Amino acid sequence: MNTDNDIAVLASNIAIMEPSDGLEKKLALAAKENRRLVIKLGFDPTAPDLHLGHAVVLRKLRQFQDAGHSIVIIIGDFTASIGDPTGRNKLRPPLSEEQIAINSQTYIDQLGRIIDISRIEVRRNSDWFRKMSFSEIIGLVSRVTLAQMMQRDDFKNRYAASSPIYLHELLYPVLQGYDSVMINADIELGGTDQLFNNMVGRMLQESFGSEGQSVITMPLLEGLDGKDKMSKSKGNYIALTDSPEDMYGKVMSLPDHLIFSYLSLATNVPAEHITEAREQVERGMNPILLKKDLAHKIVAIYHGDEAADTAGKHFERIFQQHNPTEEDHLPLILDGHTRLSLIDFCSQALAEMSRSEIRRLIRSGAVRINAHKETDELATIYPESGMLLWMGKRHRFIVK
């Protein structure tokens, strides 16, 4: 391994590294001992889709994989049943075992969009936690003090606001940290919001007499609203499984100020390209040109250049030329339905969307039938072949 080159590549875009020289020391140790580092990344399968926010860390993980190190993915199927309050001001509801199992498999399938899943080890933390006796759990948590747990920002904030903090929530960082002990991790990756949890892992390793892991955190990618971090629960995300057209369209909806952070964190362009792009905008270049380039790059990463080209033409045809064709509509099969209320008609088209969200779209004027705006959710619709339904900016259907 070329240690100097590894450091230059692997240290790019890092937000926080603990200790500050940890990466260099770990790489030097691996070279001296002629072994691969164990790189840990954990996921709690709290939602079925991975998104570009997850991809920031996964892309860094791929760099470690390409440098020849061992990748261990921890699926937190046990900790997901507790609920991580990271980034929230209240308890995250735990999931059922069935939903956790479904999400876990979906996560593994989607990892292959970024990393080589044939060269990773996948562990589930239920493998060790379900075998631990109560006395062993007590022994584990006795290694951590309440004062240490209360250094976590969300716990401090909730305590100051007299909001409830449940005891099982305090266990979460300890359990997640113990995963590092079980796999003897050298380095743990995560977002900046996971720094506290990952540092607990380092502390626990040292309490068990091992050398503590280095912790590398990556910047959090802001979501489509330009305010909060990208999150499934906030609905401001671009899923890795989005179609090329949806992915392209969502990137084009980004606020202009996010173009450069997305170029840095979600694409492969070098830093000098981003600097040049900033200078071009300052000299008066229309940001939409950069955004189109950004959208093409992101779609190409996950779907290929040809799909990115097609998605770009689709966007121009619909949103710039306002001339959608039949091929821009998804087929809507309504066998046996001769008449429906507007809200039921929309529900048939987008079954995954809640009725409250559909109602909001209708009342805001975002639903059109044959290009005519419809705002009465109870209006009677008589579906016929060829009828067009538009819901919001990206959902277009044609009745078959």
Overview of the structural elements:
This protein is of the alpha/beta class. It contains 17 helices and 13 strands. It has helices spanning 3-10, 22-33, 52-66, 97-111, 126-129, 134-141, 146-149, 153-160, 167-183, 195-207, 244-252, 259-266, 271-282, 287-303, 305-320, 342-349, 355-363, and strands at 16-18, 38-43, 70-75, 120-124, 187-191, 214-218, 330-332, 340-341, 367-369, 372-373, 380-381, 388-391, 395-399. It has a six-stranded mixed sheet with strand order 1-6-5-2-3-4, with helices on both faces. It has a five-stranded mixed sheet with strand order 7-13-12-9-10. A hairpin with a 3-residue loop joins strand 12 and strand 13 (395-399). The chain is globular, with a radius of gyration of 24 Å. The model has no long low-confidence stretch (mean pLDDT 88).
